[in-house]
């Protein structure tokens, strides 16, 4: 018994060494394939030092257009999120295997969401630009569809985890499907849904900030301009504004959450 | 207890007229609080939506229009994908893989140092912890694509730039994650090993590593999953890999080639996810 | 008292894996009876009760309720029939995040138009009725608390209130006290019995505690291996009969 344990540990140790060796070998191989040689590393570290050195202090020459672009990005993120949330609510109910009207429809929706999720948002933006033209609209649609990919999955998981007893109880009281979902299921998953939706808003704001690089409007374009002129101090300023956008969304959603919690504490004591 | 409860219910039976109005008004009062709160949230969301629609010129029609257009685009312009270019795509696909992997290794190495420095229970000094956390927070707040944009102009086009961009944004995420995992390890075991007179390296090896391993492996592999997605799009701004090819073929209106590139990205993502899941199973 | 309210004929239920949960159940139930079903776990008690309102679809047979066959009812018809059948579960099955009174109001969903019910637009009369039913189960002080803040026994009383609010003619209770301590069990059973006496509900309860069964039932039905093994008034349920109902089953004799 003890001997078995010993050999097992020995095996595990050998296995781990092999893993570590392979990981290291693949690392060296990748470096060589990418033609990353010590000389280039040293040079790029120098360049990195130069870039970081030139970032400070952050400045902007066009505060107004930077501000307008930031607002546009936020608006794109908001609309992308709202559309994504609304559509996902419907699709998730149809996709969840405990609520769906047909298992095949459920698989179809899950498959669709899986595909949509695996294609990055920026690529969706690229495709929508080709399909509907430049501007904020392709950005909104790209974020909406990418959000659907994720939200259908997480909403669906939340729905599949609910206590089916609630559904049975309401059905046995003669409630219809819509009533069961709105009166029994949604109150039970509201918290998870809210958390995921707000998380997605956060993700969408980050995405909307970079959509501009493929021409879908917003603050990403300002960043491209600054970078192309090698104005790292301006680029840093844009970055700070992006950071501020993410933070302000967080502050607003925290405030709303707090208010809602205070209200329900008052109503349910 | 049972007796008491039954008595109450006997009183309450049917002849309730005395208590009814006050109870109902209580119900209404509480319902009003909830409705007001829900109304407030709905109003804010509606206002934000209207403000955004006004600002971006979006209209609901473009939702249907856009869906229609993208379907037409995908099914007439992109379909069927031009599979003859797969040979050309293998190089960029491998580059994307290498970029993600090397980027992960870079961020793992740097994050290990920053994580130890940032963890409250291991840091040599709390000011160092603060600085280390600020650095990771800054790196985290900037998406990899933004790093790529800045680096392309500073270092030049190509996969090296993409690798560094992935590495930098990875440090932001892994530095924080490692620090949190390290902070959650059991302090008593640390003390125990320290009490035997072990030096710092021995403490790390004997007490910290065994508890840190699982979190370390799963976060690092998670980052590799993320990296492959990021690496695939970094090319759109000129940082090498599949994205670069995708951008090129779209600029040349070769949508059927672009479709193949997208499928390739899709396949690469699934493949890496499958492999990281397998490795995670083996190690943990 | 003599009118037959529920007539079950040749009820069979076979699960997809081939398990015969109910082999051939024939049972006639009269208005106002308080029936307790006993039997070892896995005997088919729960499946039987759940077949009556088709939470579990019977494989074949007839369930005649108020002169109509539930088994043959279409969706809309089934909804209408179900609101006449209150159901109480072992796990209470309340919507935990909603206030108690709303859970009671859910009993009225079957009577409301789909959208009114879905949006929870209950009128004054409905709310007052729900509040007064809560008062009858001794929970008027808990009316506005979140359901999961209540103890297990209290939650089960809310579930009883929800069933009462359906104004059903029959109540099915599937192991209503299996997850409660002895004291709360007694309180819950008392309320259930009281409600049924006052309203004249016909009641069918699954219990695995034989002592409780003897105490509350008018009539006891013993189910074993998916078949009715005993059917009669409490006084006919001798210890020998109990022994043989639970015999062969692996589980210990219930106390």
Automatic annotation (TrEMBL), chain A:
GO terms for cellular component: plasma membrane. It is a multi-pass membrane protein. It is found in: Cell membrane. Residues 70-253 form the ABC transmembrane type-1 domain. Keywords: Cell membrane, Membrane, Transmembrane, Transmembrane helix, Transport. The chain crosses the membrane at residues 18-37, 74-94, 115-134, 205-223, 235-252. Pfam families: BPD_transp_1 (PF00528). GO terms for molecular function: ABC-type phosphonate transporter activity. InterPro entries: MetI-like, MetI-like_sf, PhnE/PtxC. Its main location: membrane. Belongs to the binding-protein-dependent transport system permease family. This is Phosphonate ABC transporter, permease protein PhnE. It comes from Salipaludibacillus keqinensis.
From TrEMBL, chain B:
GO terms for cellular component: plasma membrane. Its main location: membrane. It is a multi-pass membrane protein. Residues 1-12 have a biased composition (Polar residues). It comes from the Bacteria. This is Phosphonate ABC transporter, permease protein PhnE. Belongs to the binding-protein-dependent transport system permease family. GO terms for molecular function: ABC-type phosphonate transporter activity. Coiled coil: none annotated. CDD domains: TM_PBP2 (cd06261). It is found in: Cell membrane. InterPro entries: MetI-like (IPR000515), MetI-like_sf (IPR035906), PhnE/PtxC (IPR005769). Residues 93-276 form the ABC transmembrane type-1 domain. Keywords: Cell membrane, Membrane, Transmembrane, Transmembrane helix, Transport. Residues 1-21 are annotated as: Disordered. Signal peptide: none annotated. The chain crosses the membrane at residues 33-54, 97-119, 144-168, 228-246, 258-277.
UniProtKB/TrEMBL annotation, chain C:
Keywords: ATP-binding, Cell membrane, Membrane, Nucleotide-binding, Phosphonate transport, Translocase, Transport. The keyword Translocase applies. Residues 6-250 form the ABC transporter domain. PROSITE patterns: ABC_TRANSPORTER_1, ABC_TRANSPORTER_2. InterPro entries: AAA+_ATPase, ABC_transporter-like_ATP-bd, ABC_transporter-like_CS, ABC_transpr_PhnC, MetN_ABC_transporter-like, P-loop_NTPase. It comes from the Bacteria. One of its GO terms (molecular function) is ATP hydrolysis activity. GO terms for cellular component: membrane. PANTHER family: AMINO ACID IMPORT ATP-BINDING PROTEIN (PTHR43166), PHOSPHONATES IMPORT ATP-BINDING PROTEIN PHNC (PTHR43166:SF6). This is Phosphonate ABC transporter ATP-binding protein. It comes from Salipaludibacillus keqinensis.
């Amino acid at each position: 018994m003890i001997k078995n344990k010993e050999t097992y540990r020995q095996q595990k140790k050998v296995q781990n060494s092999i893993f570590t060796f392979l990981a290291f070998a693949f690392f060296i191989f990748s470096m060589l394939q990418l033609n990353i040689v010590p000389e280039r590393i040293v040079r790029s570290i120098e360049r990195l030092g130069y870039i970081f050195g030139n970032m400070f202090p952050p400045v902007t020459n066009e505060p107004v257009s930077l501000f307008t672009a930031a607002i546009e990005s936020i608006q794109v993120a908001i609309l992308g999120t709202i559309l994504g949330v609304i559509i996902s609510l419907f699709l998730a109910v149809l996709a969840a295997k405990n609520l769906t009207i047909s298992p095949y429809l459920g698989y179809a929706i899950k498959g669709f969401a899986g595909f949509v999720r695996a294609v990055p948002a920026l690529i969706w933006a690229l495709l929508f630009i080709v399909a509907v033209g430049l501007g904020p609209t392709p950005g909104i649609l790209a974020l909406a569809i990418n959000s659907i990919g994720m939200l259908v999955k997480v909403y669906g998981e939340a729905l599949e985890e609910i206590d089916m007893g609630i559904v049975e109880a309401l059905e046995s009281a003669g409630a219809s499907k819509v009533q069961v979902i709105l009166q029994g299921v949604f109150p039970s998953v509201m918290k998870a849904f809210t958390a995921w939706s707000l998380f997605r808003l956060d993700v969408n704001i980050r995405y909307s900030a970079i959509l501009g690089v493929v021409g879908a409007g917003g603050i990403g374009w300002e960043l491209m301009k600054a970078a192309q002129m090698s104005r790292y101090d301006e680029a840093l300023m844009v970055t700070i504004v992006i950071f501020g956008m993410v933070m302000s969304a967080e502050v607003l959603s925290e405030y709303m959450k707090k208010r809602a919690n205070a209200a329900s504490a008052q109503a349910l004591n | 207890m049972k007796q008491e409860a039954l008595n109450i219910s006997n009183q309450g039976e049917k002849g309730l007229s005395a208590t009814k109005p006050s109870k109902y008004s209580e119900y209404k009062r509480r319902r009003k609080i909830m409705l007001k709160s829900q109304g407030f949230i709905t109003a804010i969301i509606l206002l934000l939506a209207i403000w955004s629609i006004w600002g971006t010129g979006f209209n609901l029609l473009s939702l249907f229009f856009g869906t229609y257009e993208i379907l037409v685009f995908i099914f007439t312009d992109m379909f069927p994908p031009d599979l003859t270019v797969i040979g050309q795509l293998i190089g960029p696909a491998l580059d994307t893989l290498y970029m993600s992997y090397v980027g992960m290794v870079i961020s793992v190495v740097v994050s290990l140092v920053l994580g130890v420095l940032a963890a409250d229970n291991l840091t040599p000094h709390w000011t160092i912890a603060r600085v280390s956390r600020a650095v990771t927070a800054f790196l985290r707040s900037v998406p990899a694509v933004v790093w790529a944009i800045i680096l392309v102009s500073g270092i030049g086009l190509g996969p090296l730039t993409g690798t560094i961009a992935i590495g930098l944004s990875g440090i932001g995420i892994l530095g924080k994650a490692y620090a949190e995992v390290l902070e959650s390890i059991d302090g008593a075991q640390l003390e125990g090993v320290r009490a035997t007179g072990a030096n710092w390296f021995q403490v790390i090896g004997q007490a910290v590593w065994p508890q840190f391993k699982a979190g370390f492996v799963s976060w690092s592999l998670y980052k590799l999953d993320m990296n492959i997605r990021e690496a695939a799009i970094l090319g759109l701004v000129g940082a090498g890999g599949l994205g670069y090819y995708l951008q090129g073929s779209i600029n040349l209106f070769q949508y059927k080639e672009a479709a193949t590139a997208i499928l390739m990205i899709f396949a690469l993502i699934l493949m890496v996810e499958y492999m990281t899941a397998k490795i995670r199973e083996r190690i943990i | 008292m003599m009118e037959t309210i529920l007539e079950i004929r040749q009820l069979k239920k076979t699960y997809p894996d081939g398990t015969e949960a109910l082999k051939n159940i024939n049972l006639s139930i009269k208005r106002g009876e308080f029936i307790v079903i006993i039997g070892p776990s896995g005997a088919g008690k729960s499946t039987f009760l759940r077949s009556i309102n088709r939470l579990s679809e019977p494989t074949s047979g007839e369930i005649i309720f108020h002169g109509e066959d539930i088994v043959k009812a279409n969706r809309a018809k089934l909804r209408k029939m179900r609101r006449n059948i209150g159901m109480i579960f072992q796990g209470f099955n309340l919507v935990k995040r909603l206030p108690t009174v709303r859970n009671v109001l859910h009993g009225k969903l079957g009577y409301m138009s789909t959208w009114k019910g879905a949006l929870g637009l209950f009128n004054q009369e409905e709310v007052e009725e729900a509040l007064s039913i809560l008062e009858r189960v001794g929970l008027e002080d808990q009316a506005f608390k979140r359901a999961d803040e209540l103890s297990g026994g209290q939650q089960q009383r809310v579930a009883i209130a929800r069933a009462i609010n359906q104004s059903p003619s029959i109540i099915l209770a599937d192991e209503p006290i299996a997850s409660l301590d002895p004291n709360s069990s007694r309180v819950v059973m008392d309320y259930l019995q009281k409600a049924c006496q006052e309203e004249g509900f016909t009641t069918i309860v699954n219990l695995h505690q034989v002592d409780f069964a003897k105490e509350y039932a008018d009539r006891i039905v013993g189910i074993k291996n998916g078949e009715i093994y005993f059917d009669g008034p409490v006084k006919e349920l001798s210890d020998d009969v109990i022994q043989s109902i639970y015999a062969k089953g692996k589980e210990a004799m219930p106390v």
